[in-house]
Amino acid sequence: MQVLVLSDIHGNLPALQAVLLDAGAVDQVWCLGDVVGYGPYPNECIELLRKQPDLVCLLGNHDAAVIGMIPLQTFNQDARLSVQWTSATLRHSNRAWLESLPEVEVHEPFTLVHGSPRNPVWEYLLDPGAASINFEYFETDYCFVGHTHLPIQFTFTQPHRPARWSIPPVDQETKLKPRVIINPGSVGQPRDHDPRAAYALLDTAGLTVRYKRVKYDIESVQQRILAENLPERHALRLIEGW
Ligand code: ZN
Question: How far is the CA of 8 from the centre of ligand 1 (A)?
Fold first, then answer.
């Protein structure tokens, strides 16, 4: 089975469209959360995502904030403005869909969360130490996470030892060997200084993953962000990929 694994779309419709086109036909789509927040197309992104085959979508911290599950004070000023704008802009049916999203999904041999297995909505898995502890919090061989917007893999070494980290090469098949935590990067707001939308293709039969990047029309998103009076910072960062 071919699975398109994507995360952190953040209301960026042109980036999502480019990813879906680039990925081609797949059997399932797994989205690791933060469909909305920052970007100016929350309704359009949810509606396009919901049309995808056998969609599994997790709840992200921005999704949770938009539906009032997380206090706004936990976000910085610019992120908070985006959350408030998104909440006011969201259509009723799309809000109800966000409210239905789970925090954890298990599809053997894969666990899916937004942040981390230990704290599915909030924890950022940025370093090998935190990754190492998190191997105790899921039972499957593999775990997909998003949230940091950084494509990376953490491989288990030994208990109480830091995990081994690697940045998988783009467009090359990587064979998965137990146990690994896999982050495909962000569709709508990459933060690894590569402004192209990031995603991954998973082959569940061969247990391989292929990291992908695709260009999209950043300027049109920036214009829409400014036209909606959303923070300029969220427009500027897209071109630099931070
Ligand atoms: Zn995010």
Answer: 5
Domain of residue 36, CATH code: 3.60.21.10
Residues 6+ apart with CB under 8 A from 187: 6, 7, 8, 9, 10, 12, 15, 16, 19, 197, 198, 199
* Ligand 1 center from residue 38 Cα (angstroms): 9
CA 184–ligand 1 middle distance (angstroms): 12
Ligand 1 centroid to residue 85 C-alpha, Å? 16
Number of domains composing the chain: 1
| pLDDT tens for each residue of 1-53 | 999 999 999 999 999 999 999 999 999 999 999 999 999 999 999 999 999 98
Q: What is the pLDDT of residues 172-231, one digit of tens each?
A: 999 999 999 999 999 999 999 999 999 999 999 999 999 999 999 999 999 999 999 999
Distance 179 CA to ligand 1 centre (A): 24
**Domain residues for 110?**
2-240
Tell me the CA–centroid distance for residue 158 and ligand 1, in Å. Answer: 30
The span from the first CA to the last CA of the chain, in angstroms, equals 33
Number of Cβ within 10 Å of residue 68's Cβ equals 12
Q: What is the pTM of this model?
A: 0.97
